[in-house]
Design a protein that fits this description.
Blueprint lengths: L1 E6 L3 H6 L3 H8 L3 E5 L16 E5 L9 E5 L5 E4 L3 H7 L2 E2 L2 E2 L6 E5 L4 E6 L10 H20 L4 E6 L12 H4 L7 H12 L3 E2 L1 H4 L8 E2 L11 E2 L2 E5 L7 E6 L11 E5 L2
Parallel strand pairs: 1-2, 9-10
Antiparallel strand pairs: 1-16, 2-4, 3-4, 5-8, 6-7, 8-9, 10-14, 11-14, 12-13, 15-16
Helix pairs in contact: 3-4, 4-6
Length: about 260
């Protein structure tokens, strides 16, 4: 099974550039997890007859949103963080209700769960750090651990954080800034402590491997980027991961897709 995750930064924009369908034809994922779709399903002109489509769009138009496109029909699909967990952590702040922003979608398959997640951005002034650190990250991790009690979990998406200094081109000037604070990085630490595996780091160490680039200063061409898009799996799936890839040459968004190939 090939699973690809991609923050498309607007599915309509990528499609209108003529880049989405050729990407799908070239890489042929079995399951595609999208983030930042910025659209309702009815607004998308993408036509993929081989895929089932499931969308969790934000209540706010043109904002956020996740989706899963799958060649395999899921047993069930759940939108958002389940109410019990969302209420426990109160996923609201002055910016709004994070659980109404279309940030999580889960598809259940026979042998695993696949989850697409778009973690809230902490914002330049770090005003969403409290939500991120005290509410969202713990709630999302609890959700993943709850699912894992039933069957293995694969979760992927834009986690809006570079975990270590190797995950961004310029770590020193970015310490304490959005995407590289101790609070955000600690969220990934907690995922790893809970037993989830960062699949890319199973195969490649060191820096130079990025998934997002600023639009400024020709950053992408110079590969001055950040690795903020991940695919994590339950520990029991570690031996089944055959490849973990970053498709840095795939254009259309300020993020590039990431992928795993798994025997399951």
């Amino acid at each position: 099974m090939k699973i690809i995750s991609w923050n498309v930064n607007g599915i309509r924009a990528v499609h209108n550039k003529g880049l989405f369908l050729p990407f799908m034809e070239k890489y042929k994922p079995d399951v595609l997890c999208l983030q930042e779709t910025k659209a309702q399903q009815a607004q998308s002109e993408v036509d993929l007859p081989d895929y089932e489509e499931y969308w969790n769009s934000a209540e706010r138009p043109g904002y956020s949103g996740t989706a899963i496109f799958s060649k395999i029909k899921p047993l069930s699909v759940v939108l958002g963080v389940p109410d019990k967990i969302a209420k426990k952590y109160n996923l609201k702040d002055k910016h709004g209700d994070a659980n109404a922003e279309g940030r999580v979608i889960m598809a259940e398959f026979a042998k695993c769960y696949v989850v697409s997640v778009y973690t809230p951005n902490s914002k330049d002034d770090l005003s969403r750090i409290p939500l991120r650190h005290k509410q969202w990250d713990p709630a999302f991790l609890e959700y993943m651990k709850t699912l894992e009690k039933k069957k293995p979990v694969i979760f992927c998406g834009d986690l809006n954080v570079a975990h270590t200094a190797d995950d961004l081109a310029n770590p020193k000037p970015n310490v304490g800034k959005k995407g590289f604070t101790n609070e955000e990085r600690g969220g990934i630490d907690n995922m790893i402590k809970a037993g989830f595996i960062d699949t890319f780091r199973m195969f490649r160490q060191g820096n130079g491997h990025y998934t997002w680039w600023s639009h400024f200063a020709n950053s992408r061409a110079r590969n001055v980027g950040w690795r903020i898009d991940y695919i994590f799996v339950s520990k029991v799936l570690k031996s089944k991961i055959k490849k973990a890839l970053i498709y840095a040459s795939a254009m259309g968004s300020d993020h590039c897709p990431v992928a795993v190939e798994i025997t399951i």
